[in-house]
Structures
1.
Amino acid sequence: MAQGSLKSKTISGVFWSAFQKFGAMAISFVANIVLARMLSPDDFGCIGMLAIFITLSTTFIDGGFGSALIQKKEPTEDDYSTIFYWNMLLSVLLYGILYFASPSIARFYKIPLLCSVLRVEGLVLIINALSIIQNNRLRKQLQFKKLAIIDITSAILSITISITLAANGFGIWALVAQQLLLCSFSTLFLWMVGKWRPRLVFSVKSFKELFNFGFFILLANLVNTFCNNIQGLLIGKVYNSSTMGYYSQGKKLEELSSTSISSVVDRVAYPILAEAQDDKPRMIHMLSQFITSLAYLTIPLMLLLILIAKPLIVLIYSAKWLPSVHYFQILCIAGIAISLQGINYYAVAAVGKSGRLLLWTLIKRGIGLVFVVGGLAAFGMDGLLAGMVITSYTIYLINAALVHKHVGYRLHQQFMHLLPIAIISVCAFLLSFYCGKLISIGMYPTACIQLIIFVLVYVALSLIFKLQAFQNFIEIARNLTRKFKHKTPSE
């Protein structure tokens, strides 16, 4: 692929992937506001308690084969069909396990309702398995525009129905319906848009070839998924569904900001970095651009959210969710590191080092479990949250060190590229924070003034110090403007 063509596809991919992610995010965000005012913290807490079982099963079904298909330069039709049937088999088996294990899970949490909820919610495993290959084929082809339209349409339809159910007193079942309908609509549209259909073939050769790479990614993803969701298991067992609800809403709002932006970059960067895996200097250049651009958005955003956390949560969820503020602010500190983990992880995966990723995933997640469980045992919820912060930065540092070793993007280079962004973000935060202390004109007006000061200071310092990431966004904006004008018919 020519460099100019790759650059054009990268910009287009980022644009449509961002449109997909933030469009669906905006719809989900508005729906969550409505549902949070209609439903109780207990309803959200119960769903949060079950998240670890659903996400672990979903990760196991994909099995790393989706990543293997993207990493492989020219997958065959036999590859796609083989993995499709494997995914379907696993989804049915895992749903069966969840179905028969649901009474024990309900007894573990001492909430009988969870048995029925898990049995219904678990159907998403089978529905999602139908669409994994269709989704990965479009991703590999960088068809992010089609994916964006599918995701946003599915989100609108599912959320509209779930809000209607909540308004009619269905409680927690409105949240379950939202998940089932979202994956059902998405699967239906992917099969309508995607022209691929599975052949009646299961190739042992294809399976073994993809398994050699995908197995390590599977284990790494399973460990990551378990450790990312262990907090819900611990909080649900040690505390109650209300505490879990407050935590899950704080976590959801933090992820909306940190992982939503990074996932846009990750999903575009992975196939592009895999394409350039044989040209290390070019790959390093693209990786540094991805990382600095991502940091330029996420670091200031996380600090800004910490600053205005209380008025933000009261505004969007109502005062009954005030206990979420403290959780949210601490999680935002972790969110800075979390946003930079994925791009480093996928850079190593792009060069085929799945075995090394697995080894270090076991190490870093083992360290993380010690911090999280130890923090909870010693200091309660604050200790657990502090453990999550320490873990997030440990994981980022290990991922960046792996990039240093296997890709060649040196650790100190990455730090030096990130340092100016971190400095001006902290400057904007401190100035906005102390300005808020000096004025006392109400919670919402003060937050608005702090937000304006933060943005103005951040952009001004970016211009003064001529940050490369800022220049990159200016260039992207110009390219998109030229592309739009080029498509507009001349008068």
2.
Amino acid sequence: MKVVGIVAEYNPFHNGHEYLIKKAKELVGDPRALVLVVMSGPFTQRGEVALLPKHVRAKQALSCGANIVLELPFTFACAPSERFAFGAVELLYRTGIVTDIAFGIDSENYGLIEKLSSVDFDSNEKYVEALKANLENGMSFPSARANAIASVFDWDNKDELLDTLHSSNSILALDYLRAIKKLK
């Protein structure tokens, strides 16, 4: 039996979230598939208080096709995307039952995100220096990171790279893939 992991905040739960749950079950090709959601608690990744209490958001997910909802610990839930993604993917992995992970992206260029996920940014000195300089120049972390990646690594289309890395779901998709690779 397949068990699909989904990381979410459901702040608030909407039709797109319900669609992802249904599509994830469909894509794994197992009509008995279960969906295990790792959801942030009272605070979102951006450090804001969630619009609805966690138990209400969990109940919404359960009524729309999720089978199990686990809370992502605060230390990951309110962290930058890399830590948020790693904590959530590790939690899914450590359950010992998750066979697949589903997530949405804001870009049609999944191939670029997948290619980026194989790059070890953190051990590249030029990337680390560019990231630090961008942050010192007042860029937000997501923009600083995207610009550092674009300036240091050789990509065919830097504009496409920057567009892809400026959307929150695509940034998370990159970090989910990096976490999956790190944990295997």
3.
Amino acid sequence: IFMGGSNGAGSYYNTIQTITISTTGNASDFGDLSEAKEVWDGVAGNATRSISFGGATSSSGTNVIEYVNPTSAGNGQDFGDMPVTDTNVALAALSNSTRAIYQRKEGVTIEYVTIASTGNPSDFGDAVVSRRNGAAGFASTTRGCIAGGMDASSGTLRNQIDYITIGSTGNATDFGDLTVAVYSPTGCSNATRGLILGGEESSYSNVISYVTIASTGNATDFGDLLAGTVTATACASSTRGVVGGGQVSGGTQNVMQYVTIASTGNATDFGDFAA
């Protein structure tokens, strides 16, 4: 499930689109969010609920949390509200089958919801580093990671990877470092590996790197995206990661591309978004 988005020129979308990860092809219409917004990586969920946390709108931002059942097409339904309204409020979201967690913009705050119920988020703890702009979120069944981003005060790019134990609450712990400091990458994972894809350094990055989630340590090179891409979004099955959209040199793209998570190598074309 892919929710919302922007063309980078002031137009925002309420579109929800879907793909079948095991095949290739263009995305199909699923339904609509309650409002048009740029979600970035503020989406997480399980097999029965996909949740969208906040996001930028044409006026400023929204604190609305919405969800859909990924097995049944339809429009977004109200889940609850984030404590603050800000643009791109959820910098990086991640989940296991029970909890969905995100780091909030402009600081270190991490919050969570219980996916099976509805309601407002609760405090989880603090990240190791503060972040202002987008970071990559991914998780195994027990551990969640937040990688990259931009310092909330200085604007310095982050190479840090933080991790948390999803089933408990508490502050994040240092995991290791990315291969390069980068902001607005995207992330996805299976139960074993987490992928960090693209982002912006001094220019748009095509780098894919990975970590083994159960252990700690620095990221390792995985391969390359088809082009340097920033502010894309990604999802995964147990075998395949798919990254779509984002900004490339010259504008935004509707391209989706995929990799096989268990191996390393460059991305392959998957299909296109409708917009």
4.
Amino acid sequence: MNNEITNPVNLILIIIGLFLGLSLGIFLLFNNSAKNKANIYLGVLVLLSLTYFGPGFLFRFGLLEQYPHIIGTSKLVPLSMGPLTYLYVRACTQKGFKMRPVLCLHFLPLALEVLFLQLPFFLQNGTEKYDYFIELIKVGETRESQIGFLLRSAHFIIYYALSVHLVIKYKKHIVNFTSAVDNAFHSWILVFISIHALPPFSVIIGFTSSNFGKYTLMIILLCFLLFSFAVFIAIMVKPELFHSFPHQMPLPNSAEEKTQKYESSNLLEDKKEIFLEKLVNYVEKEQPYLSPELTLTDLAEQIQIPSHYLSQVINEKLNCNFLDFINGYRIEAAKKMLLNDKSRQFTILSIAYDAGFNSKSTFYSAFKKQTGTTPSGFRKSLQTPRTMTG
């Protein structure tokens, strides 16, 4: 840490970080957004992060001697961040997620560290803690404490990997169960956890450097500010991110997951063919894909096929997921409109909506994936021969 705390640039970042963090943490915990349990974990994460900056802020303004017991609270942060991040991701992506006693085991490394390594320090009086802090500023971290910092960083990286794995599962889940995928939700989680992972990665990468720890505080501050600004922008631009996520996954080992996982394996081959024929006939005749909010459950109810069987038939017999299956029909409908002379007066966006898409970006992405060109490019290619012959 050395002179990092007295660095004027770091001081400015600390002041901004404390203001943003306090306002953001309080908003997430006590606003109506707290009805979404995931926001509670997010609010705790933000407020807990502030303890890393608190001692430096108080020291710079000559207040640390009056509140010395805040020193050392930052030692609770590293082993808390990983589990809280993972629990936040679970609360966002899993239906009916609750904090159960068994999940407290994620905080066991933190409890063991406090009990066997940090407890003597926490029991010291205020003067001893203050003297320790002053010595830390003068001398810096010892090699032993740096190794401890490295191990805590590795601990977070493990939870980062678990969180990314969960987000990938969530993304696979939604493309199998809905025809209107909003990438903002899982993209937001990836941005959030990746920003939090930057300091641990920088610690691991810089451990062998002679300047190890020199810029650690600044990196942490910058990442915290980046994250805080990202949250504020998200609250203003897309507040739905702080409500319940759409189409959440069933909890592991829940009755719903077991139904989806095991009952589908009992489906016989001839039954699959019957269901497939029934599915295709219904979709081509009734055109349910024109509804932008169509889900696998909706379609299953309409054709009276259990949703887990329907998902299996689409995956195994058509070699695609539910999203691609429905979008295929929507794109064919859009192509027919683009071919129709009467539709030339309509914009690409209006055609996208008429075909069942809920946004222009989704339409363009799906159209190019299937045809290799954009809708506007497809329309121009149809107009070119007419121009030449005219």
